[in-house]
Amino acid sequence: MTLWIPGPTEVREEILAECSRPAIGHRAPEMRELIERMDPHLPLAFGLSGDSTAQCAVHSVSASGLMEASLRGVGPRVLSVVNGAFSKRFRDMGELIGKDVTTLDVAWGSGVAPDDLARVLEQDGPFDAVTLVANETSTGVVTPLAPVADVVRRHPGTLLLVDLVSYIAGAPVDFDANGIDFGFAGVQKAFALPPGIAVCAASSRYMDAARAQEHRGWALDPVRVVEGHAQKKTPATPCTPLYYALAKQLEDISAGVTLPEGERDKTGAAAWDARFAKHARMRDRTLAWASDHGLEPFPAEGFRSPTVSCISSGDLDTAAFVAGLAERGFRISNGYGDLKGRTFRIGHMGDHDEPGLERLLAAADEVLAAR
């Protein structure tokens, strides 16, 4: 069964092999060497500018762990943009740890309008932070980050916290250019690793604000996580098999190993850009296939994810369609939450390639023809 769900996604055998390496002591020199393997490549994943003062880190938690950590580093007043299930989680998490949260509700299927964000920041602010999900896995909606950054920059005391879970390694983050102060993601989406660890980047102003916060906790203290990584240490015993897998994948992406034939001579930032372009092409091909069958994307024009296509089912029996593909060896997802039965989702991300996508779509044609 090949996974084309919105994550976890398919993992290469070479990456799985890294997970079977012998255990090491996390205070041994081997651990420092492992972190040092990652450090040249994490800034490429986050798209840090050449003069960036942001710091990258890895932690042995899920992305939800770093979601909570991000909130522990900001002041009490938080504005949460909610346009799907995972942005709602971000909002709920803020409330659960005692933040004074204001919600900016956005219709599922769309990203936040800059004018709406500006209005709430002006009328209800000041806020210590804005939370945003860059790529809503539940709806296939990507929110363009540059317009959001332009608005938030008008409020110098407001930090921008961004969930990059199904976005990073699939599209350009451009952390500094897009004004992100804390960005985080798990590795089971476009990084194409087994789940279990998460990555983050923190701006210097975020770190300054975080150090001033009391009661940040311990395991999810963002200062402990980021400063520990800078010292080539982890706060507690890490999941070393996944550290090995991440180090290998970062090196392979930067070396062009995961690119289509004909592009494997690209290295560094050019290799990452080529990976992003591959994801965009797979999105376009998936949406073209849907259109050929009279099916419409759930997200509005301009908000369609490069990594997760969410397609409105129309009169299609979604459960039967998903089951028919499973019988042919392809696993896609039904809609999420309230969208179950009304949409289906295809996760064309990570190390999936265009020939593989064509095989999936050919199988989908068979299922539709057999209705």
Mind explaining what this structure looks like?
The mean pLDDT is 97. The chain folds into two domains: 240 residues, Type I PLP-dependent aspartate aminotransferase-like (Major domain) (Aspartate Aminotransferase, domain 2), CATH 3.40.640; 93 residues, Aspartate Aminotransferase, domain 1 (Alpha-Beta Complex). The longest helix is centred in the C-terminal third of the chain and has 25 residues. Helix 2 packs parallel to helix 10. With 371 residues, it is of the alpha/beta class. It is 39% helix and 15% strand.
* Rg measurement, Å: 20 Å
CATH topology of the largest domain: Aspartate Aminotransferase, domain 2
- Name given to the CATH homologous superfamily of the largest domain: Type I PLP-dependent aspartate aminotransferase-like (Major domain)
Element pattern in H and E: EHHHEHEHEHEEEHEEEHHHHEHEEEH
Which CATH top level class of the largest domain fits? Alpha Beta
- Rounded to the nearest angstrom, the distance between the terminal CA atoms is 22 Å
Principal-axis shape equals globular
Count of strand segments: 14
Mean pLDDT: 97
pLDDT < 50 runs, ≥5 residues: none
The total number of structural domains is 2
Largest sheet: 7 strands, mixed
- The portion of residues assigned to helices is 25-40%
Strand order of the largest sheet: 2-10-9-8-5-3-4
How many DSSP helices? Answer: 13
Summing up helix and strand content along with how strands pair, one would put the structural category as alpha/beta
- The CATH architecture designation of the largest domain is 3-Layer(aba) Sandwich
Please report which band the strand proportion falls in: under 5%, 5-15%, 15-25%, 25-35%, 35-45% or over 45%.
Answer: 15-25%
